[in-house]
Amino acid sequence: MPRIARTTLLAMLLATVTAGIAQAAVVQTACSTPVESKAVTGNDLFETTSKTFVRVHGAAVTITVPPTVTRCVKVRFTGSVTCKAPSGTQTCFIRALAAGSEMNPQGVAQQAMSGPLPQPTGLGFQWVKRLSAGQYVIQVQVRSVNVPETITVGIDDWMMDVEVLN
């Protein structure tokens, strides 16, 4: 390959990589002193083959932010996770919502629990968001990747900790 072609190809590759990096969003959320914490746990196996997000049974907490203030809300979710299919792609996703709005980090596919995870594997996830006055249902949802084969997401022995901070 001629030198000019290699140089042009390298420049194009570098521009593509740089463009991808420039689009990545870093979100900073300032949190201060704790106000309250609510924890909920579950030890019944939850499984779904849904290709759209569904709430992990019981993984929901209601919080109230008083008028005239905002609160930083952190969600920590840990559990024994499986993501399995007969063969091929085995990718599952998880996200946290506050009153139907995604918490950070967020994105097109949300946080992936890439497989294969045929055996229960302990995983942990965290999200954060600053919320204005109002009442919010904080929930954790999962789904499988949208492919023709059936993929099963399993969550067992989990804990969800919702911490409200100034």
Layout of helices and strands:
Blueprint: H1 3-23, E1 34-42, E2 46-48, E3 54-65, E4 71-84, E5 91-98, E6 101-102, E7 111-114, E8 117-131, E9 134-144, E10 152-165
Task: Give a written overview of the molecule.
There is one protein chain. With 166 residues, this protein is mainly β. The protein has a single domain, classed as Jelly Rolls. Helix content is 13%, strand content 55%. It is built from 1 helix and 10 strands, in the order αββββββββββ. The strands form 2 sheets. Strands 1, 2, 4, 8 and 10 form a 5-stranded antiparallel beta sheet that branches. Strands 3, 5, 6, 7 and 9 form a 5-stranded antiparallel beta sheet that branches. The longest helix has 21 residues. It is elongated and about 50 Å long.
Largest sheet descriptor: 5 strands, antiparallel
Overall CATH architecture: Sandwich
Reading off the top of the CATH hierarchy, the class is best stated as Mainly Beta
Question: How many strands appear in the DSSP assignment?
Answer: 10
The pLDDT mean sits at: 84
The helicity comes to: 10-25%
Task: Using the alpha-carbon principal axes, give the shape.
Answer: elongated
List unreliable stretches of 5+ residues. Answer: 1-22
Specify the oligomeric state: single chain
Secondary-structure class: mainly beta
Our Rg estimate from Cα atoms comes to 20 Å
Characteristic key phrases:
166 residues, Jelly Rolls, 5-stranded antiparallel sheet, 10 strands, elongated
Q: Could you write a compact summary of the structure shown?
A:
By secondary structure, the chain is mainly beta. 13% of the residues lie in helices and 55% in strands. Strands 1, 2, 4, 8 and 10 form a five-stranded antiparallel β-sheet that branches. Strands 3, 5, 6, 7 and 9 form a five-stranded antiparallel β-sheet that branches.
